[in-house]
Specification:
elongated; transcription regulation (chains A, B); DNA-binding; homodimer; DNA-binding (chains A, B); 245 residues; mainly alpha
DNA sequence: GAGCCGTAGTGGTCGGACCACCTCCATGGT
DNA sequence: ACCATGGAGGTGGTCCGACCACTACGGCTC
């Protein structure tokens, strides 16, 4: 053991963690570790920025960057005038950034994302067919009829999203639902739809949604899986063909 | 849209976009929009922090926070002394944060993540069975035999990860491979293994890997899917049982 | 021509100052 | 005793200016 010259706490902890990268990066890891080790519980409030900075022996600016980084990751939440809190660390919080990935993807990667969505969506729909309750089914039907009752693309899209969101929720896996939410995020869907809807895809979409709904009512997982896979696969194939020329 | 920088374009655009949130948040959105709109190509270098800050009419500190945020998201890359660059926006870059989610998840969410992994991994393995080349197959075998040749848990885990990574790569969907990488990230796997291996799971794991390998050699997608699902499902069930009491 | 080296420019860090906002409690009225 | 009100303190948000660490590039030497 080395001598302990009654040094300051920051000097001590600084010695424990030699310079691996930037100061900010180290701060991020430290806070992440605190949460992973259970030192910080979900919903708990952190010390102030000034305290944290002093505790790790870094400036407030660097600490703020670290906090900002963990904020965009959905791990921390800063409330102006109140303090910094650990989020509930739920799927929705942590997977919010997933939508960013979808929004920034183009070309071949869009097809890949759609393929992932097809896999997850078909399984989620199959699970939902087995587990969905009457109340949840009523909610799904609400969006189905609302979607059929209008011709406004904006509204159709909104109910389309809600339709699938309700089904994903009924599947009983919040993590999967959150990922599907990201894969169907506003910008992502809107971008694809812009060109897709020009080919009279509304009628086909309505037919496919009806098929999915029938499978849910019948509580038939296999039929639901097939219907959902076909539904997403339809868009996927169209996108793939758009990419060819 | 971008205005031609005549005199006070930044003050003007700042006035056009009234306070939606924090200044930093707006800066993040602005840069994200620049990339999404094609104004910034992958690999391209951005103006300096000082320039960007002046351009958006904010301080360098705030701009730095915005850049840090986009850095942890895998969108930007800052090279000390050189400049800030847009990443290649490949799946690996953008989904790196996915591992953070896995590392910070506990309890029921771990099971949910494992369920997602089972779905993706089984599909990826099925795709790999149909598409895998002899070279890729040789690589898979390398890790299989290496894994069977040692008793060091550390080494076994490493080859286990590589085994699945090669298969995911052979599936031909980089996005899916990147997601699986995150779902199998070091900490995540190590944490589960710590307790799992105590029940003599090594032998079973080896048997299951052998089954997956056989299906790949036979180019039998259905067998591969079943073997992979069973493999992940095994751990999933164990974890589920650990959670019950 | 190859290699060295200094300089300019970049991101990284720091400390301090002020502002905007929230929280809490003492105050005073009912 | 209760509640509305207001102010004070504390918190995150923003800005500034300075300096450090590192990289890139060009001129210099050999």
């Amino acid at each position: 053991m080395e001598e302990t010259p009654s040094a300051e706490a920051e000097a001590e902890s600084a010695a424990n963690a030699p310079q691996k990268g930037t100061v900010t990066q180290r701060a991020i890891e430290r806070i992440k570790a605190m949460i992973a080790d259970g030192g910080l519980e979900p919903g708990q409030r952190l010390p102030t920025e000034r305290d944290l900075a002093a505790r790790l022996g870094i400036s407030r600016s660097s600490m703020r960057e670290a906090i900002r980084a963990l904020t965009v990751l959905g791990v921390l939440e800063a409330r102006h005038g109140s303090g910094i809190y650990v989020t509930q660390l739920e799927a929705g919080d942590l997977l919010e950034t997933f939508g960013v990935v979808a929004d920034l993807s183009r070309g071949p990667r869009l097809v890949e994302l759609l393929e992932v969505r097809r896999i997850l969506e078909s399984t989620a729909t199959a699970l939902a067919a087995a587990r969905i309750t009457d109340d949840q089914l009523a909610e799904v039907e609400k969006h189905l009829t609302a979607m059929n009752a209008t011709d406004d693309p904006e509204e159709i899209l909104a109910h389309d999203l809600a339709f699938h969101r309700e089904i994903a929720a009924a599947a009983g896996n919040e993590t999967m639902a959150a990922m599907l939410e990201g894969l169907s995020s506003r910008t992502f869907r809107a971008r694809v739809w812009r060109g897709y809807q020009e080919e009279g895809a509304f009628a086909r979409t309505r037919r496919e949604h009806a098929a999915i709904h029938r499978a849910l009512v019948a509580h038939d997982p296999e039929a639901a899986r097939a219907a959902a896979a076909a539904h997403v696969g339809e868009v996927e194939e169209w996108l793939r063909s758009q990419l060819r020329p």
